[in-house]
User: What shape does this take?
Amino acid sequence: DLANCKLMTFPVGIYKAMRSVTEGIHHISLANNELKSLTSRFITTFSQLRELNLAGNYLHRLPEEVTSLLHLRAINLSRNRFRRFPEPLATVATLETIDLEENEITEVPAEKLASMASLRSLNLRANPVGPEVRLLVRPLVPFDLLLSPEKPIPKA
Assistant: This one.
């Protein structure tokens, strides 16, 4: 747990210190730091992750290597700076929960998400997804889709 440490990058010393035990690390929390990116080295080092909490950072994309996390069940990316759904997640077959609450996401790859057999919950609350996304997504997805209520259109 390295949450609330004001980290701007993942500490390089931890890679060296934990080299012999990385296979046994299944949960990492880097929540509420100041991370702007996640490196491919982080992903490949902690390849056995089941849960990854990156909430409350400044992330706007994920490295392509995320697709190699063959055991990842839950990822929390809430309160970050994503403008697009991080598409590498759509190929992680084991993902059950994706939390993207409070980002800046407007579009969602509904067809790719619909093909994710393990996905049980996708939280897109407090994102500016348009009404067309709401209409497109609902009939396609076999999981819980959490969206903020639509705001009424102001009358002129």
In short: The longest strand covers residues 27-29. The two ends are 50 Å apart (CA to CA). The beta strands are 27-29, 51-53, 74-76, 97-99, 121-123, 144-146.
